[in-house]
């Protein structure tokens, strides 16, 4: 098959092709704005400004592999005997800010059998979850839980997303 190109290319055709290329690039940037902001932090202010203009959201990164839970403790409240407090530290090892993860708390009996499992949303254990965890930083948390007559001897905490 032989393809014949026109001998004369019109300015209008070139303009349309350039416009389509620019629109395709803009759509690609829009679709991957969160990834671009993660990998190129200097671009984030420009992407945020564009998102404000386009009425879209800039989500924080969410890479659980870059987060760790450390120094957890389960203590009984000094005021109420039926309330326990889970406290700990979440460390963000990434060079960019990240969203808080959801936590799974499993309370166990003396035989390490799970007797109660509770899923904690970030809004349940931090005051301002939308701010996220800053790059390469630690954030402490404390949350109170009502036991309602359950005898707990151990616990496990993990991030689920």
Would you mind describing this structure in some detail?
- The protein is of the alpha+beta class.
- It has 2 domains: 11-54, no CATH class; 64-159, Sandwich (Immunoglobulin-like).
- The chain has 4 helices and 6 strands; from the N terminus they run αααββββαββ.
- The strands form 2 sheets. A 3-stranded antiparallel beta sheet has the order 1-2-5, with no helix packed on it. Strands 4-3-6 form a 3-stranded antiparallel beta sheet.
- The longest helix is centred in the N-terminal third of the chain and has 21 residues, at 11-31.
- It starts with 10 loop residues before the first helix and ends with a strand.
- The model has no long low-confidence stretch (mean pLDDT 89).
Summarize the structure.
With about 160 residues, the chain is α+β, with helices and mostly antiparallel strands.
Identify the CATH architecture of the largest domain: Sandwich
What radius of gyration results from the CA coordinates? 25 Å
- Mind telling me the CATH class of the largest domain? Mainly Beta
- How are the strands ordered across the major sheet? 1-2-5
Report low-confidence residues grouped into runs of 5 or more.
Answer: none
Number of domains: 2
Annotated CATH topology of the largest domain: Immunoglobulin-like
Helix content: 25-40%
Total E-strand runs = 6
